[in-house]
Amino acid sequence: MCMETTTRGFLFEEGHKFHITCLTHDVARMADHAQQPAAEDFETDDGASSIGDSSATDSLASLRSSILDYRRENGRTYHSMSDGNITHHLWILTWDDNIAISPKKDGAKRVLDVGTGTGIWALDYGKPVFGVDLSPIQPEFVPPNCSFEVDDVEKEWTWKEPFDFIFIRCMIGSFASWPDMIAKAYENLEPGGYIEIQDNMFPLLCQDGTMKADFAPLEWTNLLIEGTEKMGCSITVAASFKRMLEEAGFVDVEEKKKIWPFNPWPKDPKLRELGFWSLESAMSGLEGISLGLFTRVLGWTSEETRVFCAHVRNEQRKIGVHAYYDVYGVWGRKPEKTDEDEETAATATAPPPAPAPAPAPASAPATAPSPAPAPAGNES
């Protein structure tokens, strides 16, 4: 789960395993076509803004009925609702209008988008992309470069050809084992191929003391952490992605760290814009991600959860609280055969260590000199 799954994440159950999965908003197709919330909609004091809940237009594709198997609970349909692509726009803004930040942000020939959601990233990438997700929420009619599959990536990967770029965004809380997922990606990359992971870090942070311990959105993020830890799917792993890639064998591993302001409290124009979209993202998905997790993992009732979400939603509008999330972009390269060959050759051609000098043979002990005769005494 991440901020993208707070907008597009819905908890569902498969057998006895829980997942937080990614669905997105259908508001912005491309960054420059999205309509930004107006600054005048926010008060400048500590009161709530006048922005209400946005109602995104649902646009479910009409696919084969055999795979339209959705789970209804608490009056909501889980893992089926397309709430838009607001968070996709937020990520594009975060990386200065870049759809990816690794060396494979363009030029890849065979790409896998893990947790593709509505497929917005795959559609925007513009290269041959295989998008995989657990539910068929992608558009039915797509350009020739895109192919979407319904599958569980925690199971065995069955693609016959390797990829040269694997992209994973906003999937914290979705996997029982990130090291296992990264190992699968490593195995399915061609030598020299790249993996890129983008996600945010929980909980909510603040550096200037304006966020108090009883601030409802902070309590909400702490409850998310508690619930996902009980599920065995941590949402506090983003800061560990760099280490995980290195341990999996990737080289040239790099990390970029940014922040998402909780709402448009910053004075910096770029951060303020990110705050607008971060708020819209969180507001839109708040109840969707909370209901399943709180009722089936934390033991809350649906009514308790909805009342709490309303309280969180009101507090989210307070621009006097200078809170933010850390967000990470991490990438690494699978070593090419030449890299491995050079390392092997260097080991093979290295001169053997010089043998230790043989110990000198033990010498015979020197013969002790005969004692000198005692001097003769005076005879009387």
UniProtKB/TrEMBL annotation:
Start-end of Low complexity biased regions:
47-57
Biased composition, class Pro residues, residue ranges: 350-374
Q: What are the record keywords, sorted?
A: Methyltransferase, Transferase
Q: Where is this region: Disordered?
A: 35-57, 335-380
Tell me, which GO biological process terms does this entry list?
methylation
Q: Is Methyltransferase given among the entry's keywords?
A: yes
One example of the protein's molecular function in GO is: methyltransferase activity
Query: Which InterPro entries is this protein grouped with?
Result: SAM-dependent_MTases_sf
Pfam families noted in UniProt: Methyltransf_23
The family this protein is said to belong to: Belongs to the methyltransferase superfamily. LaeA methyltransferase family.
Q: Which PANTHER family match?
A: 2-METHOXY-6-POLYPRENYL-1,4-BENZOQUINOL METHYLASE, MITOCHONDRIAL, METHYLTRANSFERASE
Protein known as: TAM domain methyltransferase
